[in-house]
Fold:
Amino acid sequence: MREDGSPSRLREALATGWHELVLYLATGVAYVAVGVAFPELLFAWVVGVGFLLLSVVVLPMLVDRAKAGR
Amino acid sequence: MSWAAHDLEPYVIQKELGKRVAFVPLLIGSYAPDMTSKWFVYGISLFGIDLKAGNPAQFHRGWPGAGFTHSLVFGVLIGLVLYAIWRNKVVAYSFVIGQWAHALTDTGDTVGTMLFFPFTDHLFAVGAWAYAGQTGRYVDAGAYFSGLGFVWDGVFVVWGILSWRVLTRGYFRTTVMAADPFWRWAARSLSETTLIALYRASFFYGVARWTAWLIWAHVVRSFAFDLRWGGPRWVPRIYADDLNAAQGCRCPGCCSMRPRLGFYGAVAACAWVKGLLRRR
Structure:
């Protein structure tokens, strides 16, 4: 770990955060696909941020709750 | 104008300055020049009424118009207002750094920015890619992503990815939260996962949007690449010389504007920011 709090090596960062990275990459691919199909959505920063929050915060939370409820 | 650089520059600056900058004012500063003007450049329709600037380029970058938002002095003035409100120097100069990054980046197109307004209304333009905001946002997007503009944004996409450390959780906890009061305030009501997603949002938006526009312009549509200086040349371009009616004005106010004064003002402002950084 470096003084600024970040991992000292990329390999170290990937070992602890690969799950999160995959989630963000999948969200990015989905956003690009939707954006290419409906470019109007690409103009709004709010839509981009909303898409990200929905994909990496809200959906995983709902999945976790559904799993816990089973 | 730039389409992704303004989203990504704050992360690169964050990497270079660490705890010496506050991320949220830095990001707001980076967006600030276009916040109040861009919608009117492209035009919007509200309740059946179309609102659009008669001369979009003049309104966006010129004077008379909202071009003063792209001047270095505008950043300093808003920074002083922020300092007066929050009494926090880091918040104030972080905004200034973000706004200056935007103003300097936008000198890359054929119109440029009035960097030293109000000392001079001269538009400083590198002229690397065409300014085509007046053609509407879709043609503008096609033109931007066919000329050197998308290459310039690509530099920030790569630089941003190479700055991956600033996107990690550890960096956010140790460096970003420590320097920026916004995150400490937001942490009272939001989870860390939400805070980090918000912190990474503009990076995500910049990289994803850059990719999406490139695909849209060259796969969905067939805009032709033209990487010549000032291109693409198939789009009607506006040049700095086409703007600012005040160029020929001989009134005392306009005559008192001198590029040299602007230069001295910029040097003084740089010295002031450097002094603030050293004291921290």
Q: What stands out?
A: The interface with chain B takes residues 1-7, 10, 13, 17, 24, 27-28, 31-32, 35-36, 39, 42-43, 45, 48-49, 52-53, 56-57 of chain A (CB under 8 Å). Chain A has one domain: 10-69.
